[in-house]
Amino acid sequence: MGAMQGESPAVARRRVRLALRRDRQGTGLSQGEVARNLGWSLSKMQRIETGEVTVSGSDLRALLDMYGVTDRDQIDRLLEDSRISRRERWWTAPEYREHLTPGLLQLLQFEAEATTIRVYQPHLIPGMLQTPAVADSVMNWWDENQTGPGRQVRYDVRMLRQQRIIDGDDPPVYLLILDESVIRRNLGGAAVMAEQLEALAAMASRPNVHLRIVALDEGGIVGMVGPFTILSLADDDPDDAVLYRESDIRDSLIHEVDQVRRYRGIFERVWTTVAYQEPASLRLINAQAAVLRSSLDQQR
């Protein structure tokens, strides 16, 4: 698989937009006032501050000059971040970009910088924790005829994410909440699911991985929220985080502080007051794997 090169554009772009918004707010100027003073449209200002577009070096200098930013080190850092944010080829192989959504490409970049990753999944074991056989079952359901580069890319991405987040030398803390129904579903049959649960238990025993399960009786209401991932980029600043949402037809990274806080609050409530503690959760997983193994023995 093509490796990632240098720092990620998505993370650099986020630093630029947050710094520009902070500096503007420090002057008391509105987005509209800045746009009028620079002869820009309001939509251009809004897109810069939301991270929808990159900012050129000349536009960045114009903004910093208007905000009265004179610190040379700060200016140089932002100019470098602006340059990185405009770099399109973060992946070495272009065929990877062809088969991954923009949201997933950004997610991979933020995962590389995250210190803590919080995942809630009410339906399936997260892709990067799936065994190849379970991943096959999931992919076959959506498109049983899918073969070739697209399918291989998805496998490669799972491998890369698992290597970095679970097996890496300096991995982030990974907190996972699963609905109990996830471990009760026999994706691919008893043998496949037993193998998956055993692999999940092994990964949950790693020092950086923490897993808790929401009981079936509790999971119905929580599950209405849908799956989500929160990626924290600094442990000392809870607001330095992004939210990833995914559905069957679209995915996206959400930067708005209020939305990230809301989902962080949901996660913390479920983690601390609703879900089983980690030892009990691990026992549930191992017990279900044993049930499946026993059913296979009885069929012999």
Keywords:
300 residues, alpha/beta, 434 Repressor (Amino-terminal Domain), Endonuclease, Chain A, 2 domains, 6-stranded mixed sheet, 14 helices, 6 strands, elongated
Span between termini: 40 Å
- Beta-strand residue fraction: 5-15%
Largest sheet: 6 strands, mixed
| Radius of gyration using CA atoms only | 22 Å
The total domain count is: 2
Number of strands: 6
- Class derived from helix and strand content: alpha/beta
CATH fold name of the largest domain: Endonuclease, Chain A
Number of helices: 14
Helical fraction: 55-70%
Instruction: Tell me the overall shape.
Output: elongated
Order of helices and strands: HHHHHHHEHHEHHEHEEEHH
The CATH C-level name of the largest domain is: Alpha Beta
**Major sheet: arrangement of strands:** 3-2-1-4-5-6
Task: Itemize the secondary structure elements and their pairings.
Blueprint: H1 9-27, H2 31-38, H3 42-50, H4 57-66, H5 72-85, H6 94-98, H7 102-113, E1 116-121, H8 132-142, H9 149-165, E2 173-179, H10 180-184, H11 190-204, E3 209-214, H12 216-223, E4 228-232, E5 241-246, E6 251-254, H13 257-274, H14 278-298
Parallel strand pairs: 1-2, 2-3
Antiparallel strand pairs: 1-4, 4-5, 5-6
Detailed description of the structure:
The chain contains 14 helices and six strands. It has 300 residues and is an alpha/beta fold. The chain is 57% helix and 11% strand. The protein folds into two domains: 77 residues, 434 Repressor (Amino-terminal Domain), CATH 1.10.260; 199 residues, Endonuclease, Chain A (2-Layer Sandwich). A six-stranded mixed sheet has the order 3-2-1-4-5-6, sandwiched between helices. A hairpin with an 8-residue loop joins strand 4 and strand 5.
